[in-house]
Amino acid sequence: MDCDIELEIDTGSARGEYTVHVVRAPAGGHASGMFTLDVDGILDRLPQLEATVLASAVAARRTMPVAEMAVREVGQELFQALFTREVYGTYRASLGAAQHAGQQLRVVLRLAAPELATMPWETLFDPETETYLCQTEPLLRHVPAPDYHQNPLDVAPPLRILGIVASPRDLPTLDVAAEKEHLGRALAGPVAEGRVELVWAKSGTWDDVQSMLLAGPWHVVHFVGHGDYDSRTDEGRIALVGSDGRASMVRAVRLMALLSVAAPRPRLVVLNSCSSGEMGPSDLFSGTASSLVRSGIGAVAAMQFAISDYAAIAFAHGFYAAIANGRTVDEAARVGRISVMASPDGTLEWVTPALYVRGGSTQLFTLKGTPRAPAFVEGTTAAAFQGGPAPVPAATGQAAPTQATQAQANADQAMKRAQLRALYVQASAELRARRFEQAVELFDDLLTLEPDYRDAPALRDTARRRLDMARAYREALEAEEAGDWLAAADGFAVVQDDPEFPEAAARKQDCERRQRISDLQGELRYHSSLGSWEAVLDVSAELESVDAAAADPDGLATVARVEIEKAKPKEPPKPEAPEVDAEAHGSYTAVSPPPTPPTPPRKPPESAAAAASARQTAKPATTPPRAAPLAGVPASDAGVSASRLDSAPRPGPAPRPGPAPHDEPVPMPLAWVPLAWGGAALALAGGLGACFAIYFLWFDDNYWYESGGDGSLRVVYGLVAPFGYLLLAVAGLPDRTMLGRLVMAGVVVSMAVFGLSGLNYTVELTAVVASFVHAGFGLWAGILAIRARKSQPLGWLLLWPTVTIPFVWIEDKGVFLESWYRTHAYFVLIQLLVVCAAGIGLLVAARRLRPRSAERTGT
């Protein structure tokens, strides 16, 4: 086929490793790859997958995406493993080529590894297109065998089908009549048209089957019964009926020998899993199918899971109708799957059929001639050809219809039990896997069909409770992430006693603490807006007991301390008391001025009164009165002390009271957070720009413009650096005056204009002018910051990266503003390193400001 993409899958060097190789594809090429696949894990999930597929046939199913999740997960795992990057590219290209040619792309899987035969490849799900491959494209499994191409068998209608039902008594009992009726209803149309003839073997024993095969010709063998897989021999088996009525397990090689007695050998075998009431072990017909194809059968359609009556009838109807109309067997399998998808809505049982082929051709039959009317065959009736029960003698009266009705009722009841058990298994599995929403929905479906099924009501209540707890915990986590601490704490309180959520109690306490911090900070801001500075400090002290780092939000506690200090009255300075000479007066000391040279001796007055009068006339009127004798000084020494005080220099006049302290402007401290971010932005701009310049100077072989160097520096100079200067202005540099803010605005705008103008192949006038304007504003801002005491070091860090901007126009040979190439970017590199160093310095300065702020707040 021209539109085949054949993928050969073989084992790799280790367990679980496989290789995939594109043998041929419409898009050409031979892509290959290696992948790992957890085969054992998928095999362990097959019972759950089977329960999911079978449960999807229940009419009460409401939410198919829930039931489909298990199938989709397995299908996506297989798809992503098989279609590696190169193989997937070939697949998508081949799909486009097939659509362009107006054909369908057929996917052929050559399974060289035996364990891959049991994988549910029919679930392959493409996550990009969100489609299953076998729903849109024919999918078949090619079994490695001696390469030969059988010519299509010429068949004159009708196409003869031999039906076999084997129901051993030691295996789950099959309703033989119901199984025959199901296939008969599926083929009623083609049988009536004479295109298909269906004949049933009398029993499922070896002798009866062999007798019917000898009475051929038979084109198709349709087997209904039990099967399994023998891991010791790596071979599938089917169960025929032994002479004692018990199961006689027939390996695929023996079954092939039995089928070989027919002449010609049947080209197609259909293995249909049973629809018994109780689901036993998985019907691994996959091993039998691959063995039959390897032994010489042209194609085998096998059911890899138990299948409901409806799905079995629908698949057989579409499959055999397509065969009878001359379609290829792979196309017939796709038509059969589409028939299964018809109803009920959302059923997944189209996954169950799997097709195995041998050789390169899928055209098994060539129908020649016109269909003929159904004829009688010895030992059968027309009703038998149509699959219905044979008429019974009239003497039985109404017994036959009554038995048939009872048999159908028993079959329906058995199928219901199987579906209920499948729903129960799937719901329990979802509950164990903690997918509580899916478990609740599945238990609801189960209890809709059977309200008191086993312990399903209690399990549903458990699933609902777990779902509510999981939902509350998830909502609490979302509230915590959104900063809604109160809602998060309430949510964690709901689940804190549940052992499934061990961290809920700690999260609740943390959210309550954060909520308390948020409330206190809101109260602090409220008091600050009213100017209640004492209340601000009280709230800040309470905040510190909860979280020291949150005690000074936005520096409001610091502002409160400054305002309180400003409001305190200033006491006038007290004059210093003189010191009494310790040598002359023993241990009696006082504060004394520094020693003065001795005064010349004065003529002693004639009397004390005269001396006093002379002193009064000699001193100016403004001389303050003599100090009283010092306390504790003997009276005999009082005169000496007084004379020493007289000879000491007098203090000058008391200073005039200046303006009150609260009239002086108090400079606001720099905000360290925006200062740190501004430094980080400048460090980032300088560092990135330096890396770009180094690359363009020494590692780039192309010209500057062709390498996109102008674009990279536009980002550095036009966006990142101006953002850093803007953050420095927010932090309070160069000062918080209106002039300082205007100067920083000029720095930011001129830098952005310079950067966005770009360093192009030729010098742009706008960029040149903006660079000098930026240098001027930067010089102005640096001087303003240097003049301020507290930001003097930061002024130098602000000045250097701004005033050096015009250096970028200097070429390596000293030429200025002539042209600009990448080879002349040395001065750009130097300027960018200056910017980076200044940013790092600002970061260090901001880090040093932080503990000072904490010390001022008392933290």
UniProtKB/TrEMBL annotation:
UniProt entry tagged with the keyword Ion transport: no
CHAT domain residues: 73-344
Keywords, comma-separated and alphabetical: Membrane, TPR repeat, Transmembrane, Transmembrane helix
SUPFAM superfamilies per UniProt: TPR-like
TPR repeat placement: 420-453
Signal peptide: none
Pfam name, any one: CHAT
Ranges annotated as spanning the membrane: 675-699, 711-730, 742-759, 765-786, 825-846
InterPro entries membership: CHAT_dom, TPR-like_helical_dom_sf, TPR_rpt
Residue spans of biased composition, Basic and acidic residues class: 564-577
Superkingdom of the source species: Bacteria
Protein name (Swiss-Prot/TrEMBL): CHAT domain-containing protein
Region of interest: Disordered: 564-665
Organism per entry: Paenarthrobacter nitroguajacolicus (Arthrobacter nitroguajacolicus)
Family annotation (PROSITE patterns): TPR
Biased composition (Pro residues): 592-602, 650-660
